Amino acid sequence: MAKDYKALADGVIANVGGAENVASISHCVTRLRFKLKDGAKADKEALAKVPGVLKVLEASGQLQVVIGQDVTDAYDAVLANYPLNAAGEVAADPAETKVAGEKKKFDFAGTMADLVSGIFMPFMGAFMGAGLLKGVLVLLTTFNILPKDSSTYAILYAVADGTFYFLPMFLAYSAGKKFGGNPFITMAIAAAMLYPNFAALSSAENVNFLGIPVTMISYSSTVLPIIVAAWLQSVLEKFLNARLPKVIRSIFVPLIVMVVVFVAVVLVVGPVTDIVGKAIANVIKAALDAFPLVGGFLMAALWPAMIIFGVHWGMVPIVMNNHAVLGYDYILPLTVGTNFGIAAAVFAISLKSKKAETKELAATSAVSAFVGGVTEPAIYGILMKCKKVFAVLLLANGIGGAICGVMHVTRDVMITVNGLTLPAIAAVYGPWGIVAIVVSLIAGFLAGYFVFDDKMMEEA
């Protein structure tokens, strides 16, 4: 039966304190994210009971309502029925989102999670699409279906690799907006970093700026330099906007910011972040090389728990830095089996449960995890209520991670991990990645089928 998204929208808005209490609304893959003027007006218990809502969380100064794979439909229904400020149109003032009577506390983990998700999430669809195309090309060339020296390959590879090469441009727009600067000025700085004549200076000798020696690095595919540049830009923009007359502001602020920040990147930010990026990649790699079994087990076992708290976003810049520095990643391959383990566990629950509601929720959650790679509905809707199943599943997924760690499974492209991308996964991750997936599937199904009991859902 089709969902009544208007009823869902009405129930959600009524329990966040009404439309007048919403400073802004946005959404990610599975959650509606509200910034409220007065958090005390939200009835979280009643909100969690609204049909269609899987869970209610508070993180990063937001009230987050977990909907699942239907979140886009729910978001559209809210905006269609309520005159709210959608994300990107009017940003909520921090003072307005503060809960009445609550002292403002600095939450480092929450702030970092919000920062990373705000910068990387907007372009993740394009990034994953390009990565999947790379995986398909690997598959086609491996089986000699498409020659690497053909023009067809060159055209398709341009689509696949362009996003990675011009990664600083994507980061520039989202980071510029996140830090409160003009995102197009940030993009102009990124464009200068990637400008062919500037990049060609890497092969020149004695490069300097006004006599100051310049350490040239390659900025294509980099992550850290443009993010730091975006922050510097936002600080300088605010400083100049507060001091320059309005008459000349629109001309001189962009000019000064672009020149000063780009020079700062060339002289300091680029070389320093290059050293930091390489150090991070090499230290983590050395740790995993030294303890591959333990590292692989812990990474895969804790991954679903990291999703619950949003900590998994902290891995994104590290993973992208690995691709930029090493040309491959060794962290996310450890979790290749987790989506499949989760899907198998909730599928087993859908088979074993005698409750129609549990069967339906578990089955749709299994499809979401297996086909779309979106596991939040399974985690929030089923597994967090079935703690014994969840605990056994974490251990089961850890086995797959340990296998990947010991066998040094890596990937040189970013691709989504789900049932539809299995051929590409086989080509990119190799046979041991598939072994880890099979282990997680079998162990996850056994955990769900033999540990689950309908009483778990009733007691939750």
Low-confidence stretches: 88-104
Shape label: globular
First-to-last CA distance? 26 Å
Q: Supply the helix-strand structural class.
A: mainly alpha
Number of discrete domains: 3
**What is the residue-averaged pLDDT?**
85
Query: Number of DSSP strands?
Result: 6
What order do the strands of the largest sheet run in, or round the barrel if closed? 1-2-4-3
Percent of residues in beta strands? 5-15%
What is the N-to-C succession of helices and strands? Answer: HEEHEEHHHHHHHEEHHHHHHHHHHH
Task: Characterize the biggest β-sheet.
Answer: 4 strands, antiparallel
> What's the gyration radius in Å?
24 Å
Helix content: 55-70%
Annotation field: number of helices: 20
Short description:
This protein is mainly alpha-helical and 460 residues long. The chain has 20 helices and 6 strands. About 4% of the residues have low confidence.
Supply database-style keywords.
single chain, Gyrase A, domain 2, 6% strand, 20 helices, globular, two-stranded antiparallel sheet, mainly alpha, 460 residues, four-stranded antiparallel β-sheet, 3 domains
